[in-house]
Each structure stands twice: as C-alpha cells, then as structure tokens.
Write a structure and sequence with these properties.
This protein is an alpha/beta fold. The protein has one domain: 3-Layer(aba) Sandwich (Rossmann fold), CATH 3.40.50. The chain is built from nine helices and nine strands. Helix 1 crosses helix 9. It is globular, with a radius of gyration of 17 Å.
Length: 223
C-alpha cells in the first residue's frame, strides 16, 4: 500500500519529519526558507511557501499535519527582562486585539489550513502543533509537553514522558528558550551561528516525533 502522507509546516530542519520518515511515512515540508548548515538540512521534499499565504486545499492529500510555528516572540516575552515585559504589556493593553492577532498569526494559520484541508478532503485530518511554554498565555494551555516542547491540537491521550537525560543538538543545549544557551545569547541576531543554533534546538526530539508517527499511522500499515 502507498505510504501515508504527512505535512510538516514551518518544518525547519525537520525534527517532525525525521520521526515520520523513520516510521514509514512520506513527508512534504513547508517553510519560508531553506535551512542548510553544513551537512544539516531538511531530509524530505521541501516546498518554500509562507503559511500565511497558503490555502488548505494544498494540503488536502495529507493523512496528518504537524507544525512548529516560530517561537522566538513567545520565548522572549517569557523572559524577566524589562523590554520583554514591556512588549507583553503592550499586547495586553491593545484593545483592538491587532497586536495579539499579529503575534498569533502563524499559529492560527496552521489551524486554518487544517480546517480548510479537512473540508476539501471530505474527512478530518488530524494536526499536532508544537511550540514553547511561553506561548500558553497567548494561545491557551497546551495539551501536553515533552520537556520544553509543548503540544496543541490532536494530541494523543497516551504520550511519552521526557526523562531529562536527552543531550543537546550539535553542541547546543536541548531546550528551546534563548536563556538556556549562554554562548548563543552573546551572538548578534545577524550572526549565522545564532540562526543555526535556533534551527537546531527547534528540532522535535526523535522520541516525540516517532511516537506521533506511530499513533497516526493507518492501522493497516501499522503492523
């Protein structure tokens, strides 16, 4: 039988994709740019698209959608810095809601694409969205977390636990908040090492992505 198809939105270096591929899925990733750092690159079909400009009909052939919207703004506002607190306060004070809509635009676009894709396909397409703990004040409580990776959407009732022993990626610590890596905090935003660091630590752990891949694999292919 044909392998099921998963869509990986905001795919980056493909942490979701690696687990899906290992479990026999076909994967098509979408991102606004190509991430290539030496030998590190996205491991499947890559489509360069902005999710804000997409329609769910492009994803109607999917059996599963996963997504990791950018987390930098959420992580920044969770920090105990004066400017971070001021930015959060400004969003809360905006009675028009425009600042909050801008903050959550990509996150909300992912769920819009799921709804549109399901409608076009004539069947429900499950979706799991990952982000950081700091996103919760702005998008609601997560259904589960695996270490610093928080999940929304169709999160299975039985999930693996993070045991705290996972080592980092490419020499970086394995957590997503910017405060967790002293070296990266010293790099300017224009330093290519900062961009690589951000892409590396954003990768979904294999234990998590493989679990989701197994849960949503069609039963006739799960054996």
């Amino acid at each position: 039988m044909t392998a099921p198809l998963a869509i990986d939105l905001c795919c980056g270096l493909g942490g979701w994709t690696e687990g899906l591929l290992a479990e026999g899925w076909r994967v098509r990733g979408y991102d606004i740019e190509v991430h290539e750092y030496g030998d590190a690159r996205y491991p499947a079909e890559l489509v360069i698209r902005n999710v804000l400009e997409m329609h769910g009909s492009e994803l109607a052939d999917a059996d599963l959608i996963v997504a990791s919207p950018p987390c930098q703004a959420y992580s920044y506002m969770a920090m105990p810095w004066k400017l971070a607190k001021a930015k959060a306060a400004a969003i809360r004070a905006d009675e028009t809601g425009e600042k909050l809509r801008d903050l959550n635009a990509i996150f909300n676009a992912c769920f819009r694409l799921q709804r549109e894709a399901s409608k076009v396909a004539g069947r429900y397409i499950p979706m799991v969205v990952e982000n950081v703990r700091g996103a919760q004040p702005w998008i609601g409580r997560a259904a589960w977390n695996f270490g610093s990776y928080y999940l929304w959407g169709d999160v299975p009732s039985l999930m693996p636990f993070f045991d705290g022993r996972r080592k980092g990626f490419a020499g970086f610590k394995g957590f997503k908040d910017f405060s967790d890596c002293e070296a990266a905090r010293k790099w300017s935003s224009r330093d290519p090492r900062r961009k690589q660091w951000s892409a590396e630590i954003a990768k979904i752990p294999l234990a998590l992505s493989s679990h989701i891949a197994r849960v949503y694999k069609p039963k006739e292919l799960a054996a």
